[in-house]
Amino acid sequence: MRWTSEGLVLNFKSHNEKSYILEVLTRDYGKHKGLIRGVHSKNIRSIIEPGNEINANWSGRLETHLGSFSIESIKPWSSLILNQKERLCALTAACSLVSITLAEKQPNDAVYLGFKSLIEVLTSGKDDWIKSYIIWELNLLREIGYGLDLSKCAVTNQKDNLVYVSPSTGSAVTETGAGEYKNKLIKLPTFLINNNIDPSKNDIIDGLNLSEFFFKKWFFQPNNLNFPESRNRLKGMYII
Amino acid sequence: MRRKYSNEEIDKLILLISKLPGYGPKSASRAVLHLLKRKDQLMVPLSESLLSASKNILTCENCGNIDLVSPCTLCSESQRDQSQLCVVEDVADLWALEKSEIYSGTYHVLGGTLSAINGIGPDDLKIRKLVERAKAENVTEVILALSPTVDGQTTSHYVADCLKESDVIVSRLGQGLPIGGELDYMDEGTLAAALSSRQKV
After folding, report:
1. Which residues contact B92 (CB under 8 A, 6 or more apart)?
2. At what angle do helices B150-162 and A85-101 cross, to 10 degrees?
3. Which residues in chain B have their CB less than 8 angstroms from residue A17's CB?
4. Chain A, 211-240: which have a CB under 8 Å from a chain B CB?
5. Are A12 and B116 inside 8 Å of each other by CB?
6. Residues A55-103 pLDDT 10s
7. ipTM score of complex
8. B174 near A CB under 8 A
9. What pLDDT is recorded for position A195?
10. What is the mean pLDDT of each run of 10 residues along chain B (201 residues)?
11. Looking at the partner chain, which of A46, A73, A229 has a beta carbon nearest the beta carbon of B121?
12. What residues of chain B lie within 8 A of the CB of A13, using their CB?
C-alpha cells in the first residue's frame, strides 16, 4: 500500500540508531506514524522538526503496519521561530495537543487547516498570535467532540454580557445568571465573544485556563494522561 | 531442531557486542571471531581496558564530563577562563568543542534536551546544578551551545529563564550558513537565521 499527502510534522522518536518513528498530521490520511530512515542525514533531521510542512510518501505492506515514510520539505516553519520563546513554546504545545488528542488515521480537514493556519500565524510576526492560539485550542476541543457553547447564557438564554462558563456543561453564563455560583464558574475572556477586542494579560491567562480546564476534565483525566508540559510552560510565561 | 554451533560463552559475548552502536547479531559474530583469533593482541588488552575503564572512569560531579577524577581535569585546570561557562547537551558536544581548540572556558553538560515525546523534563537535566554554578562560581557569561532544533532551543529558552536571577550574561551560538555551504542549497530557516544575524563588513 502506498500513498502521498501533504502533512505537518508532530514529533519523532528514536527507533534505533538509523531510524526514527515519525508522526505526521496528514491532510488526506489523518494522524499517521511511519518509520523514517537515514536520520544521520542533516537534511532529513532538519525537515522532521515539529511544525514543519512536508510532502509525505508512506508505504507499507498492509494498512495496519507501521510502514515507512519518505519525505520532502514544503516549508520549514519551526526554524523561523526558533529564537522566539513564547511562539516556539506555543508550537510545541500545539503539536503535543494534536498528537495526544487526535485519533490515528482519521482525516479531518478542519483540524488540518486550522493547525496549518495556526502555524502560519505563529510564524507570521503578528502580535496577537496568542489570541489565535487560544481560539485554536477551543476549536480543537470542539473537533474532538467536546465543544463549548459560548453563544448564549445557559441560565437566562441572553446573548449579551456573557462572562462565565459553567464547569459542568461548558456553556456560557451571564453575570446575572451566575448569581451566587459565580465563584464556582470559569471566567470567559471577552475576546472569545468579540473577536475585535485585543486581550489583556489577564484575559490571556483566563483563556488558557478555560481551554485547559475542559481539556483536562473531558479528555486528559478520563484517559489518565498528563497535560503537555510545553502547554504548562506556555501558561507559566504569562503568569510570571 | 536447530543445530548448535557455538557455546554459551560465545553467545553471551555476541549478545553483548550486538548491543553496541553500529552492531547487529551478524557484525557482532564477526567481531567476536576476530577477537578470538587475536586473543593476546586484542581480546585480553581490550577486556583489561574495559574493566579498568568501568572501575576508574567517573562522571564529574561539577560539570557532568567524564574523567578519571571528579572534579574533572577541565574543571580543575587553573589556566581556563573561569568566567565563561559553556552549556552543552552531552559529552560528545564537549569533545567536539575541545577538539576545535577555540574555547578555553569551563563546561556544563546538561545530559540531553527537554523533550515531551521522550518524557524528558527539567528535573531529568542538570539545570539546577548549572544555576548553582552560575551563582556560586566567578561566572560572568553562560554560553548556550545547544542544537538549533525545536527541542534544543526550547531547552535554551528554559535554561535562560532559570538563569535570570543570576547576575550573568546569557548568550547562544550563532546560527546561519555553514562554512563551505552554498546559498542555493540552504533551507528558508537557515537563510532567515543568517540574514537576521548579518554583520557589517
Report:
1. none
2. 120
3. 21-22
4. 228-230, 233
5. no
6. 999 999 998 899 999 999 999 999 889 889 999 999 999 999 999 999 9
7. 0.86
8. no
9. 84
10. 76 93 91 94 95 94 92 90 94 94 93 85 90 87 94 94 91 89 82 84 87
11. A229
12. 117-118
Contact between A92 and B118 using a beta-carbon 8 Å cutoff: no
Give the pLDDT of residue A10: 96
| Angle, helices B127-136/B150-162, rounded to nearest 10 degrees | 40
- Euclidean distance between CA atoms A134 and A49, whole angstroms: 23
Domain spans, chain A: 2-79, 127-239
Exposure of A153 in the CB half-sphere (CA atoms within 13 A):
18
Predicted model pTM: 0.88
Touching check for B116 and chain A: CB below 8 Å?
Answer: yes
Q: Which residues pair with B120 in a beta bridge?
A: B115
Query: Which secondary structure element, helix H or strand E, spans residue B8, and what is its range?
Result: helix B8-17
Give yes or no for B153 touching A (CB within 8 A): yes
A103 Rama sector, left if φ>0, alpha if ψ -120 to 50, beta otherwise: beta
| Number of residues that this document lists for chain B | 201
**H-run or E-run covering A34:** strand A30-37
Same-domain status, B29 and B109: no
In this prediction, residues A153-166 reach a mean pLDDT of 88
Are both B190 and B118 inside the same structural domain? yes
Backbone angles phi, psi at B36, to 5 degrees: -65, -30
B173 CB within 8 Å of a chain A CB: no
Domain that holds residue B12: 8-56
Measured distance CA(A18)–CA(A11) in Å, rounded: 17
Please give the biggest Cα pair distance in chain B.
75
Helix crossing, B8-17 with B25-37: angle to 10°?
120
CATH number among 2.40.50.140, 3.40.50.2300, 3.30.43.10, 3.40.630.10, domain A2-79: 2.40.50.140
Phi, psi (rounded to 5 degrees) for B18: -65, -15
Chain B residues with CB-CB distance to A73 below 8 A: 187
Interface test with B, best of A83, A233, A234 (most B CBs within 10 A): A83
